[in-house]
Amino acid sequence: MMDYKQIQELIKLISKTGIAEVSVETEEMKVKIKGSYNPSSNQTMAAPQLVMPQAYQTPPVATSESNEVAKNESVAASSSGQAKETVEDTSNLITFKSPIVGTFYRASGPDKDPFVKVGDSVEEGSVMCIIEAMKLFNEIESEINGTIVKILVNDASPVEFDQPLFLIEPK
User: Rounded to a whole number, what is the largest CA-CA distance in the chain?
Assistant: First the structure.
């Protein structure tokens, strides 16, 4: 029987070699991995195709607040003639990192409230976000008790394994 690591190795093999399709059958299971072929670029893409539900296909939005802060900081630095150094003391904060690769969602749907916002208290086991990986929506739970200080990823953004998602001040 094939395990998860063996399936990952097949996907990597397809990515490296440019094979269009691989099918493996055993008595217990059947695995079929397809890449997509683009004749114009003459390259084969073997990564699995992830299709988001239509409700989630909204472009990431940069908040006007963050743009305004950046403008104000650059104006203040240029008008004073010196760049001001702002050093945040993050030594007491815990960085909550992504346990998997996928797409980060702050809420269970586009019309739903986010699981957590800056300033919210979280407890061990409370859902902080959803990461979609291979068409599965995984609820990511807090491992500590604390307060959300900063959200480091935009909604509907791709995330890597071990990528920082939140800064949490422990209780």
Answer: 73
Total-model pTM: 0.50
Could you tell me if residue 101 is inside a domain? yes
Domains of the chain: total: 2
Residues 111 and 37 placed together within one structural domain of the fold: no
- For the cut 80, the answer to whether the pLDDT of residue 159 exceeds it is yes
Alpha-carbon span 35 to 22, nearest angstrom: 9
User: To 5 degrees, how large is the angle CA 138–CA 139–CA 144?
Assistant: 135
Q: What angle do CA 171, 159, 97 make, to 5 degrees?
A: 25
Give the pLDDT confidence of 2-30 residue by residue, as tens digits: 676 777 777 777 767 667 777 777 777 77
